[in-house]
Batch of 2 targets.
Target 1
Amino acid sequence: MTDRRIRSPRPVPASDLAQLLLGLETEFEVPAPFDEATLAAAEAAVANLVLPAEDATGIPFFTIDPEGATDLDQAMYLEKTGDGYIVNYAIADVPAFVELGGALDQVARDRGQTYYLPHRKITLHPPLISEDQGSLLPGQIRPAFHWKISLDQQGALGAVELKRVRIKSRAQLDYATAQQQLDGGSKDEQLALLAEIGALRIEQERPRGGASLNLPDQEIEPDGDGYRLVSRVPLPLEDHNAQISLLTGIAAARLMLDSGVGILRTMPQPEEQSLQEFRAQTRLLGQPWDEGISYGQYLHALDVSDPKQLVIMHRAASLFRGADYHVINGQPEAEMIQAALAAPYAHTTAPLRRLVDRFVLLTCHLLTTGESIPDELKSALEQLPALMRESSAAANRVNRASLDLMEAYVLQSRVGEQFHAIILQEQGNGQGKASEGQLQLVDLPVTASFTGTAEPGSLATVKLVHADPQRRRISFEIVAQNS
């Protein structure tokens, strides 16, 4: 391809980046700061809090989250028994602060979830609740839903108990430090049990054909006077911690399905054509998915440190579309599966950050106590699918725009440079117009469009020809196809 010079837009200085980020909030109409009435309602809720009568402060719970986290939804204490394990999982009791049908409830329904932007976090609840009095911070007595989940020696789900209690977390761990301690031979029994139980739960996915994908995170890091893009592969303890959360969501779904009331997180099976296309892509990328191996077994065997296998993981994630929420209303259980997990599942463990979890916790607790589900809660359950769809779509739009902006900002000084890339999708023509190809850079966590000719699954050398933060756009052209 003939080399050509592209006039790059004037580089956007760091001082203007802040304005572009703030502009996203206006453009995508993210929730405004909490008004005085909402902040006052949060203060009143804290002042009027009545802690549960049951005292579980003797259980040495701990939390494990990203470093610096303040909205701590979950705390755990793990036990090994003669015939298996007990998972004690405490989830922040947000309903203790947010009265059903009250002012805080309405604000939360309007927001739906916490928005995470590069420059700040827009919380679902006022910070007094989400990052202070409702958060399971260490050394503080807090109201919580205590899930006591029994597992057998293979990690299979057994008996489940659920109570509202008061707890006191003993320690706040972060993933990186905890993983370093575990890898260094730490004798911490809780970290060892977390790794042991997490590994067993991953094994439990295999016979079901499920696979929980913890894909690398795309992150922005300060770099001198600017920023850089990094791809961070989740640590093993992050995967193991995720399994505890998934276990609780599966237990909650089972409880609600058996009782015929509640709300589940669902996902349909991928279409057969999509599966066949995915199989073809795995062959092109040199890691064929054999017919005799389940989807979950295949994905668990991939090594995401290999760029081509990482592309396969991303393509696998795109197989499963149509995630939604469905209220239980007599449907066949087969219609209520979360297909990627190959099991019924409910969002349960993040009530500080996601609206639906609060209602799942309320429903599950009432079911375990034998109390009837009030009409107000039944009505709320019916409204939740639409509320969650709307908030998820809004959050996804601004998240995508934020990522596009930061990619263009970071790469604007590198226009004209060459990169190695894997071709995801070739240029095509459809409905009378040409479509750009899609590629993923090997050394940077960037997916972008390109012009030129290259086969899907091939490695190519590409040149960055455009990076415009104001338009949130980057593009490449093919220099050479390498394989």
Target 2
Amino acid sequence: MLLTPKWDENGNEPQYVQLYTFLKNEIIAGRLAEKTRLPSVRKLADALGLSTTPVEMAYQQLLAEGFIRSRPRSGYFVEKLPDPELTPKGQGVSEQPEWSRPLLRDNRKYRYDFHMSQNDFSLFPHTLWRRLYNQVLGGERQEELFYGDPQGEPGLRQQIADYVRRYRGVVCTPDQIVIGADQFGLLSLICLMLRQQLKRIAVENPGYLLYANTFRQHGYEAVPISLDEDGICVDELYESGVRLAVVSPSHQYPRGMIMPVSRRLALLEWAQSVDGFIIEDDYDGEFRYHGRPIPALQGLLPQTNVIYMGGFAQVMAPALGIWYMVLPQSLLDAYFTLLHDTLLEQSASRLHQRTMEIFMQKGHLEKHVRKMRSLYRKKHDALLAAIHKHFGERASVIGADAGFHVLLRVYSERSEEELRRLAIQAGIRASSAAFTWLTPPAEMPKEFFLGFSGIALDQIEPGIAALHEAWFAGS
């Protein structure tokens, strides 16, 4: 097999990215057919005159996205893709490339706080943000204090369109972007836009209950759909008869799996075949710690009815109150009709929007994301090492390598309630994941959120040691 990518002589992209993009496009185009065995890492490296590192990194990215499969002692093989007419045409990887669970009403002070979605604000650019905010106010233009564009400030929508294209592979124009102060408000707009044609929504089970509960408040029926190792079960979607589904393909909440490209294309095919809609929740898509972030579902087939949900709560801070959604072209008329009929005003602070616009325009957001990704990677790796050291075979980790938390499945004779109580008594926050199930399984696993983003790096190892002591002392 002759694999000869054309290298970028200017060095604008790392060699592993160029190799990944080449192989990905070869698979999409069918030139690398299903079940084709790829050369070993060493053989391909030798043939291309590279070290093994970029080849290994390219293979790992293809593996993470579901383009290839690794067979023990056999090597890497090309995976089957769905119907070719649904395959994205000639797309490469984006340049670089929230669910945020609302803070639980738990006012206890914990010695070790493994909050599932708490940010680390130690690197927040307070001085810079204050200077840019004062710059917005400094002109003393009175119109800046009025409501602003109900869809969101045009300059910020332009910056968001550029950002999600480069970092998340989302294909859109600023006119497709709608800004709001919170997820509930944006989801409520979706409910109103779709209520004449849809009455049911499929949700991941387990999943983020804000979606199910928001649509229920608007009179929809929430239909739980099971997950397997690749994400939401498309066969169940067909059987359910629903035409609207919410998914988190880049890092499923709470279980953390990454939806491979074959499942993503099957999901898009479902939406096309039933004339339906997909809501893509990309709550932490920027934060993958080993390998490149996984491009968003929306960019695979931009003409499909995918509503992309994002925001700055985890990337920056929840207090800024800036969330956004990208509407498909098919919903723009319904959105503008809704604006006209309701006289809707903008819910997100205009001053914060203008400050964020300048922050992004000057390249500060990308720098901040890189800093936070590096910090969270250190915490993520420290958490996994501590769990392995102290728990050994008494627990397993679910959903590593991305996001702001992992799930810890505990193998103990104690009940989940007793484990929760013992953690609290020891001064440790480790929240049960049971609340994420819309329809609980017959036998509920004992799983707990361990968030690592908000806890100090030097507290992670002693915190895990204390948690093990609380749960397994004397055993």
